[in-house]
């Protein structure tokens, strides 16, 4: 998920993504609050009207609806456009709030039992969805999945989505988070720069090391990164480990299994590669002190060739990106002949989490607004306005896409079934963004060896696994 300032963004992640998961607001006040709010039943069906072919969820005409949308790098106009269609159909004006402080503004409202209906729960100051789900405060969105799609009544909404959208949105067996965007994470670069210099995007780690030497000779830094938010580098590191070592071993890491970091040879290879990049001076000097915007600006101005990021970067970096920059993203690098997944493997996954509050006044309307957002019309509008894919498969087919979005769409198509989804950053942000982020900061400045990074990573994962205050999740193979 993108934003205008890192204090106000997550992906996924990005996320996530991608993709996104910085400081999670304390939710202690929620632990004792009631699920309800807005009157009526507490099963999420208040203000339910009669169902019909045009109104399969049973939205009550004229019932008020409130939407809280994260207004970061993606803006909120795309949501306003969908709300306009909702208004015409159901005879109201959606109460819309665009904000970069979702958690601080909504935590008291959840505690007071009067949350808004639809929430784009993104940004650094987001609500803790894990706790909200455990407390039964989120609407089960299965009725939305089983409703007919806006474009083809013969197709259910679930049949129009990337399958990982449903997998990622589940807390245990309940689907209560809808990740609307589809973020491509990876190594971003200027196609023009590479072509002008006669360089080829590297296929392997070895190729990258060789190319870095050539880039340095040209007076350009091979890499930059937002050192103030080093979890951006994890977008690449985590997926690279899964690509080389295999998804099953990455799932062991997602599941906080003992020795999952220390027993995985792919971890040693990937972290060792970043240690080598640091030792050979491959990072732009001063990167450790940069925000994401500063790092992106250095990159778009040609001071560095590569940057780890998510596909929101095209929209977020637009103010400083030259018209002929040719923004592009490449697949994960090969580690060697023993890689468990083929070349072309990519981390691409649902991002930008939307939730419907069960205690809202009109949760049925919240689901219907999501159904409108998932129409081809609004998926294409999203792509046009914010240069990002959505979780609707094939929605951008035939569209004239911006360079970065076009590159991302081609990479997803080339990846085929080899699209990775990483849950660790979503499930355990304190572990990944704070604790592992601190380790990565030291690794990239050359102040920590790979072996020490791995040892400490396992220690922190074990501590998280044993911490009874942290909600645990389990991912199947």
TrEMBL record:
SUPFAM superfamilies: Periplasmic binding protein-like II. NCBIfam families: chitin_NgcE (TIGR03851). It is found in: Cell envelope. Keywords: Signal, Transport. Residues 35-57 are annotated as: Disordered. Coiled coil: none annotated. The keyword Signal applies. It comes from Streptomyces albospinus. Belongs to the bacterial solute-binding protein 1 family. PROSITE patterns: TAT. This is Carbohydrate ABC transporter, N-acetylglucosamine/diacetylchitobiose-binding protein.
């Amino acid at each position: 998920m993108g934003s205008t300032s890192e204090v106000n963004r997550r992906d996924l992640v990005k996320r996530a993504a991608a993709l996104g998961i910085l400081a999670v607001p304390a939710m202690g006040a929620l632990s004792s609050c009631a699920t309800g709010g807005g009157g009526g039943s507490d099963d999420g069906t208040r203000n339910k009207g009669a169902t019909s072919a045009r109104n399969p969820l049973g939205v009550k005409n004229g019932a008020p609806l409130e939407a809280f949308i994260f207004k970061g790098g993606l803006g909120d106009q795309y949501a306003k456009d969908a709300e306009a269609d909702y208004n015409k159909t159901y005879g109201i004006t959606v109460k819309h709030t665009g904000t970069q402080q979702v958690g601080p503004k909504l935590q008291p409202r959840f505690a007071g039992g009067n949350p808004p209906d639809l929430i784009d729960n993104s940004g650094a100051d987001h609500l803790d969805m894990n706790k909200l789900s455990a407390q039964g405060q989120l609407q089960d969105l299965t009725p939305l999945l089983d409703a007919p799609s806006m474009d083809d009544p013969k197709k259910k909404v679930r049949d129009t989505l990337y399958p990982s959208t449903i997998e990622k949105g589940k807390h245990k067996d309940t689907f209560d988070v809808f990740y609307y965007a589809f973020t491509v994470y990876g190594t971003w670069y200027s196609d023009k720069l590479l072509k002008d210099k006669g360089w080829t995007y590297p296929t392997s780690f070895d190729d990258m090391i060789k190319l870095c030497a050539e880039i340095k000779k040209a007076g350009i830094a091979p890499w930059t990164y937002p050192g103030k938010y080093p979890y951006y580098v994890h977008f690449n590191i985590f997926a690279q480990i899964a690509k080389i070592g295999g998804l099953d071993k990455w799932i062991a890491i997602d599941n906080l299994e003992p020795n999952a970091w220390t027993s995985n040879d792919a971890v040693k290879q990937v972290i060792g590669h970043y240690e080598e990049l640091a030792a050979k001076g491959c990072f732009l000097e001063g990167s450790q002190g940069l925000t994401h915007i500063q790092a992106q600006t250095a990159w778009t101005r040609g001071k560095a060739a590569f940057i780890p990021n998510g596909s929101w970067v095209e929209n977020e970096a637009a103010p400083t990106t030259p018209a002929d920059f040719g923004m592009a993203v490449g697949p994960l690098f090969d580690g060697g002949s023993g890689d468990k997944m083929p070349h072309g493997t990519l981390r691409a996954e649902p991002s930008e989490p939307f939730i419907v509050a069960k205690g809202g006044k009109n949760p049925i309307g919240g689901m219907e607004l999501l159904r409108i957002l998932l129409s081809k019309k609004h998926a294409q509008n999203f792509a046009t306005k914010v240069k990002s894919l959505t979780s609707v498969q094939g929605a951008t087919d035939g569209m004239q896409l911006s360079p970065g979005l076009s590159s991302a769409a081609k990479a997803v198509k080339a990846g085929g079934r080899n699209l990775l989804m990483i849950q660790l950053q979503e499930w355990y942000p304190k572990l990944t963004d704070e604790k592992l982020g601190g380790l990565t900061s030291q690794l990239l400045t050359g102040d920590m060896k790979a072996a020490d990074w791995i040892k400490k990573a396992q220690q922190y994962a074990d501590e998280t696994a044993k911490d009874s205050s942290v909600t645990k999740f389990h991912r199947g193979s």
